[in-house]
Amino acid sequence: MKFEKDVAALPGVTRAKVNFMTNKLVVEGASDIEAIRQLAVKHNYTVHPVFDQKPQAAVRPKIHWERRRAVASGLTLAIAYGVEKLGGSAMVFIPLYIAAMVLGGWGNFQKAARSLPRGSFNMSVLMSLAAIGALAIGQYEEGASVAFLYAISEMLEAWTMESARRSIRDLMDIMPKAARIRRGAAEVEIPVEEITVGDIMIIRPGEKIAMDGVIIKGQSAVNQAAITGESIPVEKGPGAEVFAGTLNIHGSLEVRVTKLVQDTTIAKIINMVEEAQGQRAPSQAFVDKFAAVYTPIVMALAVGIVFIPPLFFGYEWMSWIYRGLALMVVSCPCALVVSTPVAIVSAIANAAKNGVLIKGGIYLEAMGTLSAIAFDKTGTLTKGEPVVTDIVSVGGRPEDNLLKLAADIEARSEHPLAVAIMRAAEAKGLPIQPVEDFVAITGSGARGTVDGQAVYIGNPRLFAELGLSIAPMAEAVKRLQGEGKTVMIMGTQDTILGVIAVADAVRDNSAATIAALKQAGIRHTIMLTGDNTLAAQAMAARVGVDEFRAELLPQEKMTAVQELLNKYGQVAMVGDGINDAPALALSTVGVAMGGAGTDTALETADIVLMADDLSKLPFLIRLSRKALAVIRQNITFSLVIKAIAVLAVFPGWLTLWLAILADMGASILVTLNSLRLLQVKPQQRAGQQSS
């Protein structure tokens, strides 16, 4: 935070933001990279531009030397301890202890020398003061042990933090750095930054697709796990959309590029995940405030322990200086501060790998506290595509004959219901012969001439206008409408031929997902739809939601969500991210379906299910609740360890090396505990139990 403020204060800089978890500094305004570098050195950071790889190479030897110094410190400490215990001369073991302290603490002594002049009492300063203080009061073994243990602890902490950060770099590594582009008659491989919209990519079998685009030639299966989290490949051909970072399984493809590298779906996902990790969750805000109060109080207590007992009660200076140094080491709330962000990062990274994009810790935490979830019907609980569900004929006419007749009439119509009839006929392999004199009857149906006779297909109102009684099919029509289906009657001017019912197909996993959510503890599930009450009631019973709101206009969904918020408190809204944008924004957490390739869904919702897969919702609830549990465990553990350590100071039980172990050991343990969130897996199928 101090580095952030100092960078923001530089001339020409309007804003600076440090993302600790991704090791990134974002500077807005006119930035002087050299001025930022010099400032970074004072704050113990090394800064280099994101795309400048040379300084990164220069960092590696530094890490290597720190490891070597830590090992040398441990060996020297062991030799000094052996010499002392075997009765060796102090002239031998004291210099060895000092050498072990210098080797183990060299890096931190340097950081402390830069931090102290700025009044920054970070862990490097506290450790250095403790080691030098131990040396000053003749506790050579303690001083060397502190330096060595801290060096080892820092390496372990860096390793555990790197494990969390690696989960994001794994996402970045998905993106290919170059692609094969057709330029004239030749195929050339060029960096993705040089590819422009309209270029033709050549993708061979087994290669990753480098850019978003549309297939213009070829057929193949594409593994879209990087985007949607679904490992089962999807068959794609000309006209199908493909995404950067996905894998071409077999077959050669030619793809016309539709987006620049910075605008691809995977680039947006990575950017949003990074931004999400930089946002403070509610529990993290509490921890930061607590740490800001806790640290100065404990440091003041450490100073008091050093001076008050010897000055006012005549106690021995050395033992109370030692206790003050131990308390000073414990006063740094490392474990407490990292307890929340590492858990949030691990959960968000795991979700992203499984096709769920969470835009911040606040939404991750909110999902774990939900009492109700509202679902839009069309495109969420259903596929959003009408399909033929029932064919009822009169007089024993074969169903396929009635379906073929309907398809012949509807072949020239573009109405969604006509498309459903065409698909049903094609699925059965029926030969379709479009009628020549097709006439669309607005709002009612259509007409065509078959074998010299006019045949009508449409709603009951059409046949009422024709003066033809539908009595032979009245019972079937009423039953099908009661099931929430759209009924189309077929007949001539004097005869009813039959009924075809069409409905928006329910997603295969909708009912199982609702059941899994109830098992996960979601007490109320609600469906919001524009359908009539009868159809909504039938759909609600079919998928298993607890209640429904029917005949809602798009703007009325917002009112419905507000009522649910007033009634249940924490309510999520699941929709398609386009028509439902206002309701998504109003809810506690807005969850959009099918974000892959849908910019609107990516932008409007708080959480995006990249594939049209409702079964990811129970996984999301489990992950969120697990994250909340881990955060509570981390905070409780950190506070308990600190309390025990502080109380152990007064009777003199807390040694300096125990203080280091209590501080850095706790940091490592809470980080490792947080990394368990990377292991939470989605269920293979909605409703199937997962460990």
Automatic annotation (TrEMBL):
Residue ranges of every copy of the P-type ATPase A domain listed in the record: 175-274
Entry's EC annotation: 7.2.2.21
Compartments where found: Cell membrane
Topology of this chain in the membrane: Multi-pass membrane protein
InterPro entries reported in the protein's UniProt record: ATPase_P-typ_cyto_dom_N, ATPase_P-typ_P_site, ATPase_P-typ_TM_dom_sf, ATPase_P-typ_transduc_dom_A_sf, ATPase_P-type_domA, Cation_Transport_ATPase_IB, HAD-like_sf, HAD_sf
UniProt keyword Cell cycle, yes or no: no
Keywords, in A-Z order: ATP-binding, Cadmium, Cell membrane, Membrane, Metal-binding, Nucleotide-binding, Translocase, Transmembrane, Transmembrane helix
Signal peptide interval: none
Lineage top rank: taxon: Bacteria
Recorded GO CC terms: plasma membrane
Catalyzed chemical reaction(s): Cd(2+)(in) + ATP + H2O = Cd(2+)(out) + ADP + phosphate + H(+)
Stored Pfam families: E1-E2_ATPase, Hydrolase
Sample GO molecular function, one term: metal ion binding
Main location: membrane
Keyword Translocase among UniProt keywords: yes
Class of the enzyme per the UniProt entry, highest EC level: translocase
Transmembrane segments: 90-109, 290-313, 325-349, 629-650
SUPFAM superfamilies: Calcium ATPase, transduction domain A, Calcium ATPase, transmembrane domain M, HAD-like, HMA, heavy metal-associated domain
Protein family (similarity comment): Belongs to the cation transport ATPase (P-type) (TC 3.A.3) family. Type IB subfamily.
Stated name of the protein: Cd(2+)-exporting ATPase
